[in-house]
């Protein structure tokens, strides 16, 4: 067992049982990092009142029963300071280095469905889609690494009344011209041209409305045209996904159209179960606890009064399919924070219908907005949404400019620029809590100092340069690891926390915590490198030990960045 926090947790829990009885064995010891020791246990503070004793007295009782590989000390009003021995840290670091998984445990497998990206096929992808795509892909990678069966679901907006006018516009300009425009990512221009005709040309409007009817009836010719439209649009989406290096493929597409045939049955089932009722001509679910401004029950509309369906209908059909057909144990919806009420009512309605049983977790991974330097929604100076592909290409070109003084050929510079540019954009997004807003700022993102993607990429490149200079292979570094200097100790302790942080990110869907861990790891390595000569160590034993610590740091940083979907160039 290499995780220090887990070792200490179990040690304190054994002490709790010995001190106060077996009923306290499962008590959370409240282990936290400490500036006075490696960790401190704060459980005495929470137990004191229940036991009718002072916190310090409780802490001393617990400390007397703690058996860990290190020192135990009670301080202050009842804090238990825990310091692991250098020998234990060195041995566990050696085990972590030898472990293919670097101390990350494989969890009992669940089927985890992650709904992310989900652009609208009638529009271009813009910066607002960046976060749902990047956060979702990081969560997918973490869940898979933890051993779960992960099913990606790209719930495209690929159905509905706008497609009547979009298909008619395709006929007007010709299939070839439409495909070229959509594949190039000019979906907004295409949509606006179709919309302008719909608003000003009565004949076109009539054709568009008629086309909606044939689309809903899945008329063969209309479906052929729809597939042409969708094929061109998906090719554009795939350009963005390739640029971002995300793992979504065409096989992961599960758009609104997929559920079109079952929407009527969804409504009938809900009505038969008494879950949905007619209200003002519309079919609605009224999940308990949701009220409007005047305290009236808030409706979750399943079928409109004109017989049409909306997002609520499709989303309920989606949950039913994912639970009943895909056998989901956990559902992660990586969707904008503005949809919080809709998602809450969706989950509540699905539970009322029995389609979301208690054993299935359903979570809304809320995504905050991307802001410009003015603190408003990130747009062009003309007030338009910024095209995501253009934004990513600018990130690459700026990264290449940052690296312009490096002595690389054009192909190598382009390759590094691509990895650094995309790493900068993705890390800036992932390093803040997913439900928070953040300001999009290329200068800050691309900085080689501070908590940025390029800083972490540079840290891995610097470690590799140590091995190149010494003509060592990082994969051959075995140690044994010895702990002597405080900087060696701090680095080893930091690295041993990798397994716990990956598990935590998987449980709580918090990739920003992995970012923080990797930044702290890189910072600990910098302190180690400045204080502990590696190639010029005083002895061969110290050199081999420090090479092993450097190799372990390289592997942890590389693996951690890979879980975030960030490539690591060999050189920078």
Please provide a brief summary of the model.
The protein has 572 residues and is α/β, with parallel strands linked by helices. It is built from 21 helices and 13 strands.
Task: Explain what this protein looks like in three dimensions.
This is Arginine--tRNA ligase. A four-stranded antiparallel β-sheet has the order 1-2-4-3. The mean pLDDT is 93. It starts with a helix and ends in a 9-residue tail after the last helix. Among the domains are: 81 residues, Gyrase A, domain 2 (2-Layer Sandwich), CATH 3.30.1360; 216 residues, Orthogonal Bundle (Isoleucyl-tRNA Synthetase, Domain 1), CATH 1.10.730; 92 residues, no CATH class. By secondary structure, it is of the alpha/beta class. The protein has 21 helices and 13 strands.
- Assign the CATH architecture of the domain at 88-94 and 118-126 and 372-571: Orthogonal Bundle
Percent helix: 40-55%
Q: Approximately what portion of the residues adopt beta-strand conformation?
A: 5-15%
Order the strands across the largest sheet as they lie in space. 1-2-4-3
CATH class placement of the domain at 88-94 and 118-126 and 372-571: Mainly Alpha
According to CATH, the homologous superfamily of the domain at 88-94 and 118-126 and 372-571 is: Isoleucyl-tRNA Synthetase, Domain 1
Distance between the termini: 35 Å
For the biggest sheet, the summary is: 4 strands, antiparallel
Give the averaged pLDDT, no decimals: 93
Report Rg. 28 Å
Shape: globular
Going by helix content, strand content and strand pairing, the class is alpha/beta
Any low-confidence stretches, pLDDT <50, length ≥5? none
Q: Please tally the β strands and state the result.
A: 13
CATH fold-level name of the domain at 88-94 and 118-126 and 372-571? Isoleucyl-tRNA Synthetase, Domain 1
DSSP summary: helix tally? 21
